[in-house]
Amino acid sequence: MRNPERTSLTAALRAGMAGALALASGVAAAHDPVFGLGPHVLYKGGFETALEWHGEKAGAEREDEIGFELTYGITGDWAAGVELPWARVDDDGDVNSGRGDVQLFTKYRFWRRDALAVQESAAVALKVNLDTGAGGTPRVGTGATDWILGLAYGYESRKWYRWASLRWRRNGDRGALDRGDRFLIDFVGGWRPHPRGYLEPDTVWLLELNGEITRRARLGGATVADSGGQEWFLSPGIFWTLRNFAVKAGVQIPVRSDLNGAQDESDWRAKVVLEWHL
Question: Domains in the chain, ordered, with CATH?
């Protein structure tokens, strides 16, 4: 005959272990790369708000963008949101600023595997870059509607992280100009030097390798010589969290550039994100 007292103890131990696993997975799942795409999604019914700054410089042109992002957890594996940006472009003293391209996005996590203090997952993502920029000279926004389709994988533990992602950006045409598609490739490693509890400040150091491969543009059916090519960046960054608040920051340092024709190579890019989970 089964001992009811022993059965209750076993059930309690199993419940405690399940809770510990869920806690560990929850802590790990709260992280994504700074520049790459990760598989993290919100819990069902959750809101995430973010204030972001992006800056970049290539030759004589510098662009700064501030964006407000709102994300909603539709289910535990599916999230969607919107980003509302404001941008400023300075091209060798010619300055233009105004509303940037509004972006709508969604992400679905289709695979997840949990182990003791470890979570692996994979997700697909879709983003639409709407033609809402202020235009002008220099141009604010792309002047076309672009689509970005991505696939992301992540391994997250209490100490180590790794991510990989591939994105295809289908750039829309601007009048007679076929702007050429772009492929983005990301490999990311992360290290938490001191594992912390949820109530304590937590720091994860990141190192990303980000690649951009762009096809040549075409104008009226003819190839544009000064277009297309590839750039690769080595990107150190940090992810700092305290409870439901997080700071992500990083800088992209160009390590290889092979652009076609007379195009300005990137000097640097940087990003800072403030996130709140509600």
Answer: 4-277 (2.40.160.40)
CB atoms within 10 A of CB 133: 22
Tokens coding 185: 């490739």
Give whole-number Cα distances, 264 to 26, 89, 278, in Å.
Answer: 43, 15, 42
Structure tokens at 133: 């920029």
User: Pseudo-torsion of CA 187, 273, 249, 188, nearest 10°?
Assistant: -10
Q: What's this model's pTM, rounded to 2 decimal places?
A: 0.88
CB burial string 90-106: b at 16+ within 10 A, e below: beeeeebeeebbbbebb
Q: What sign has the CA pseudo-torsion 21, 23, 28, 31?
A: positive
- Three-point CA angle 202, 204, 210, nearest 5°: 150
Provide the CA 31 distance to its chain's centre, in angstroms: 10
Cα angle 125, 87, 48 (rounded to 5 degrees) comes to 40
Neighbours of 28 (CB within 10 A): 24
Instruction: Spell 142-173 as b/e; 16+ CB within 10 A means b.
Output: bbbebebebbbbbbbbeeebebbbbbebebbe
Read off the pLDDT of residues 219-239 as tens digits, 9 standing for 90 and up. 999 999 999 999 999 999 999
